[in-house]
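Bumping with the actual sequence this time:
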Amino acid sequence: MPITYTARPHNAASPFVIRGTDSTREPTRRVYVSTTATGVPGIDFLAVERVVNRDLPLPRLNEAEQELAAQLMTRAELCTEEIAERLHVEPRTITRWRASWRKQEAGS
């Protein structure tokens, strides 16, 4: 179902209603990524934060940024398909990353 925008009545707080979203799903909290972290070459923390919070338009991320965003969205309990859609990757990629993270945690 495509998402459409409809003007709300004048007494509403926001001027638009988003139609086509899942009304049964509770809104998720915003995730803030520390942009003061240094020494991590090739990662645009602001772009990662925009993708995690679905701030449109979604920027394209490199592989390191995609994996960081996937970790943050996994912690926020988003489903595999939604994470894959936002990152423009296959759901199988998210599943492989999660298995790799579990293996790293078990080895630590």
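The tokens above came from a reply further down the thread. The beta strands are 4-7, 16-19.
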